[in-house]
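Standup notes
- DV: blocked on the single-chain target, sequence here:
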Amino acid sequence: MRNDHLQSHNEAFMHYYEKYSDDIFRFCMIKTRNRDTSLDITQESFMKFWSYLVDGREIVNHRALLYRMANNLIIDGYRKKKDIQIDNYTDEPIEQHLEDNPQKRMEDVIDGQLAMQLLGQLPEVTREIVTLRFLEDFSVSEIAAIVNRDSKIVSVYLHRGLKKLNELITNHG
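- DV (later): unblocked, structure below
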């Protein structure tokens, strides 16, 4: 019986690892801009996730839990003053997907890079919420679970952040 229980945890873990490990790593890279640190945080997040599974703790939203674990590890690392460069968006170019129109693609690259640079001017909490919503495609309720805030407050931060980002983009050009 114990082996069956462990096997089901292994299968669940592998399912979620295959489904979300790349996303968690990308999230960590956006936050830290350090590949080794991002790999470590991703690994540690999944180790904590494994413990949740084995302990039989209730998990309402597996994806949100993984992001919250990674986010908390990033914050812990920042507090411990490890070599983490939080949200330094200007170091690397943004990867672009293929598009038929090269001029449109170039305009999108320029607009995306400008938005990423200006995103760094938003307050940390607002920047995190906007990033989770538009780069990681989380819903407001999932973001609320990740950042441990009420959904209404997340919506307010999101609205204010987008308004401020729009002002920054307008004033930049």
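- Follow-up: Residues 127 and 133 are 10 Å apart (CA to CA).
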